[in-house]
Amino acid sequence: MLLIDCPHCGPRAEIEFHCGGQAHVVRPGVEVEDADWERYLFVRANPKGAHLERWVHLHGCGRWFNVVRHTVSDEIERVYPMGEAPPGGTAA
Amino acid sequence: MNQPYRLAGGGAIDRTRPLQFTFDDRVYDAFAGDTLASALLAHGVHLMGRSFKYHRPRGPIAAGAEEPNALVQIEHGGGRTDPNTRATAVEVFQGLYAHSQNRWPSLKSDVGVINDFVSPLIPAAFYYKTFMWPRSFWDKLYEPAIRRAAGLGEAPHQPDPDRYQHRHAHCDVLVVGAGPAGLAAALAAGRAGRRVLLIDENPTLGGTLAHTSTEALADWRDRLTEELVGLPDVTILTRTTVTGYYDHNYLLALERVSDHLPPASSVRQRLWRIRAGRVVLATGAIERPLVFVGNDRPGVMLASAARTYLERFAVLVGRRPLFFTNNDSAYAVASAMKAAGAEVVAVVDVRSDPKGPLVQAARDAGIIVRTNAVVVGTEGRHRIHQAALGTLDDQGVLTGHLGTPVGCDVLLMSGGWNPNVSLHSQGRGKLRYDDGLAAFVPDGGQQQSASAGACNGVMNTARAVAEGAAAGGGAVDAPAFEEPEEESLRPVQVVPSDRSGARAKAFVDFQNDVTAKDLGIAVREGMISIEHVKRFTTTGMATDQGKTSSVNAIAIVAEQLGTPIPAVGTTTYRPPYVPLTFGAAAGHSRGRLFDVVRRTPMHGWAAEHGAVFEDVGNWKRAWYFPRSGEDMHAAVQRECKAVREGCGLMDASTLGKIDVRGKDARAFLNRVYTNAWSKLEPGRCRYGLMLRDDGFVFDDGVTACLADDHFHMTTTTGGAPRVLAWLEDLSQTEWPDLEVYFTSVTEQWATMALSGPDARDLLQPLVEEDISAAALPHLAWMEATIAGVAGRIFRISFTGERAFEINVPAGYGRHVWQALVDAGEAHGLCLYGTETMHVLRAEKGYIIVGQETDGTVTPYDLGMDWIVSTKKGDFAGKRGLLRPDLQAEGRKQLVGLATLDPDVVLDEGAQITAEAEPRIPARMLGHVTSSYMSPNCGRSIALALLAGGRERIGSHLFVPQLDGPAVEVEVVAPVFFDPKGERLNG
Asked: Which residue, among B879, B883, B885, B886, would best test binding to A if mutated, counting the most A CBs under 10 Å from its CB?
């Protein structure tokens, strides 16, 4: 079980959190083409290595934040607030 | 003393506390401190079980948790039964009752041994190939027959009466294993002021030194233990096994709190959930068996186990031990057993010229050493009585017999030592093959952890202490003892033998009955990955996880493949390290504490008035209120009619309620509902539909405007948590610019739905305010005082009748409910439950999200185009609805189905076909989503999702039933009662 460092509450067990999938997926406006909308709805990164993802401290402060997790080692490399640019500008 | 193999003195048993226990219906004596295995061995009993597949007689080979053979069932009646328990780890208490497993009629004459004679017919993976056909034999014959023939213990049939606990622990340093390295690590960390948790599986600390006869080592052990016990931040758990090592230094440990005592009312086992800053693994090493023909006969044991039985239990496992080794460590055991009075037959050593200090000491004691020698076979039915020896050349080829077979009563083997890397590997640590040890050692871990001592390949006590202390972050003096150096071992994967044929079996995995030959079959069948070999042969699987077998298996596979051992690699060690009881895994979470039960403020009233409840998520909801003699059908039919003819009252408190507030609350509602909220005035309510971004229906409910910046949202009962989570997600991450706050108020309000033509007449006298149609029309709400309680009344109807939804603070719920019930007496008020609610709304064609929808249904599919705004800007689902497939022709649409025979009620979930007996595979046109007998329509009604449904209205289709022929139906509009909706108003 992961130990996640909530930016508001400190390190807590994974069981208190819920993962919201890939971070920095931009929700396009209504005008976009079908292909772009499809990409927004369904297409997600599946990297071997650093993965930027959204987590919410559901059974704690209730706040959403971003996490960089290594998908092989499960090591959490960084935690940063919603709205902050992805580290190294590596948004998918 | 009738324990012929017990020594008069020594050992860590308490001779002043004799005990009796029962094994296979015979009563034996033991002493406090014995294990089941040690006490049986004290009586000369080696036969303790039958093997898994071939039913071969088996005795213990080990003295600890790694034991693969001596699995017994502990049986104390009344649900207290533990299968597959290692006799070597069961501490004897007065009255312990155990029996052997996997044998019938008895351990000594087991008919299942036929499997051993037919073993050529049932090699590795035979079941993958044999029991394929005929298909009808699968569940009738193959499954039950195989399960009976190949098996271990018997699962309990009754609930477990014992108590179990879970406990969370956080520490700076967790030390697993209290041998030399572990004690040093714990002390070093403890002295530095760290919070330390030291865990050992045995009753006493010390590991290999726990019962040592060497004074210097015992002194050192006692000194460290004493200091550790005195340190305030050091917690010591004995009889506790770390069973799993998971991510981020999260570990599980099983504490056997009272397993060593007669069954009692105290806690039996405690599961520790540990989060450690740093983990020091000091789990020691496990001796490796030698793979030779006949190595599974009772009496063939690991040499180190014999030493443990001698030192800890004062038991000689045999009087005439023969040793078979490829390294020095067995010589120490031979010397110790000789000193204790055993007549050592010989030490058979595969090496050509062993001359280390331990070897020399054995020779000096007069022990015969046979070099370049091997055991080529053993004899003895239920116990070894002789072994045949052979000679080996430098290439490992058998060159001939060595004399005639020698008599012996035990054969003590040593193939070297395997560092116990199970936890390291579970924690995703890497492994490296060490040629010197001929075993795998840790090679870096990814977690904050270190391995120290024998589990790290360091077999010397002083160096293990130094390594442990360093891992604990300090230094600890080593014991004042010069340990003899050992010479290197000579690896031998499979000991050659002149015996051949099916009965010449050399076992690799004792627990799973896997022989060296089976591994050869696997390789010949093309399994070149060790993970495939594992599944094909089952070596290293199940509760054993290859504790004694895995390294041998890998080495043999490497030899077969002609590749170096490191290239073969290891399989993954999996938790739990030792079997975990279901009781420990469940802890307190059983029975009433298994899950949360949510009850409404009026639950008690409903229970007292005979309600039958149904589970809706965690909620208990009143399902129907049967009167005496009524079954469910009769009660629901009566309730349905009563509501439409007079009035009915239902507890709707479980509806999700979310308080939405903030200056941008209205703008936010516009973005999460499909319809427009800009003009909803305070005092008004509106029904809303929520979609996900993909355009599919997600939830629905009525939201009331309390003030321009304040709304009261309701959701479905089951959807409340996910709707709140979704709103929070959107608010925090998608539209953080909107100022809006959400608070769940589901449990703050008691909600009562009062429905029917007489509803107002009943309610008005209880309410101070005017609730006439003019003052409080349909879809309006007002603050009101109901039976003296300040609350809110909403004109919301889920029945299609004139209806009032009364909300009062939860604490007043039962009071107001009672007032309504009392006032209702004069009006013939009917109490109804969720089933009647379902029928009434279906009569009106109102959907239930999750029943008429399944996550693939759009508002258009439901015929609810009217609720999707075409004028307002972006909202969740707006772009999604424009996807071509969601606009396509022929989508499934909500319709009604009327059976030609009005008395037939369709099966919910049934498929719809064009013909009564369609050609298989039939084309499914849709399915029935809701189906009831409607007393108000005087016939059965059903809702369905049907391909191109609205186009098909008026046509006839068929609905195949679970039993009986397909039912012919007419497709109709999905509103069966009051299609113009006139009864709502007024």
From this structure: B879
